[in-house]
Amino acid sequence: MKLSKAQYDEVARFITRLKPTRQCMRQLKERFPHQSQSTLLSIFSQEYQKLIKRTHARHHAPDTIEMYYSRYLHDIAMDPAAPVLLNLANEVDFSPALIARTILERFLQDQDGVMPTKPVLNSMLRDPSLIPDPVLANQVNQCIVNDCCNGPLVDCIKHSIGHEHEVLLREKLLENNLAFLDEDQLRMKGYDKTPDFILEVPVAVEGHVIHWIESKASFGDESSHRMYLQDQFWSYWNRFGPGLVIYWYGFIEELDCHRERGILLKDEFPSDIVTLHCCMALEEEQGQQTKENKPEKSQEAQ
Length: 302
Fold this sequence. Notes:
Blueprint: E1 2-3, H1 5-15, H2 24-31, H3 37-59, H4 62-78, H5 84-92, H6 96-112, H7 118-126, H8 134-146, H9 152-175, E2 180-182, H10 183-188, E3 197-205, E4 208-216, H11 222-240, E5 243-247, E6 251-252, E7 263-266, E8 273-274, H12 276-301
Parallel strand pairs: 1-6, 4-5, 5-7
Antiparallel strand pairs: 2-3, 3-4, 3-8
């Protein structure tokens, strides 16, 4: 689904008023009923990630961490069954999963006297039953389950959705009898940075020749698209020629401005693909018509 810059800005402004809870999607859908749920969720997630980046340093200042940890210990002592970390995250307007990570890291440091390693911390966040304190384990689990934008559960869902759309793209290529190489095959050939699929025989889409296709199970906003252009798309263009990017959840239509330079944007698999076989068949048909018309023109001339 394509959105104009004005439409996107309207959605983004509304998102700034929402808390990162499961209920926020209902409010978004009520406000923008004509936009798909997947598009709204993708935009919300991206806008919230921007907020997290802007406020991350403030929430991870040493004195702030100590304040959060003291607050946690006090509230848990008062009522161990209360959703203390969730309430704290909502109060300070920060990600529940990131608050849980901060408190867990501080707790482990308090227990062992040293800063826990990243692998240890990540394993406990993925499986809170590994946390030695059952009360904190429950608090961390509540935060991870109720965070719709961050945490290991969300990362797993995003990875699955991304893989699902790559499978969908593969099926579309096979349905259209297009020969291709995927990332694994390309890495075996020695390529270190590759698009999802390279077409062994180029095709044309809306008059533009494409050599590769990249799948993005997200909405294409300005910041993410700029990052992808810099880190991926122009590199693909430089190595393999012009290509197509599919933002399955839509994009800001003004971003589709590099067609003449070789980057085409779509929000679905194109239905108007022109293959080399089609071109050859068309040329053959036109040639046959020309031959059939030649005798008529000759008689008229006589």
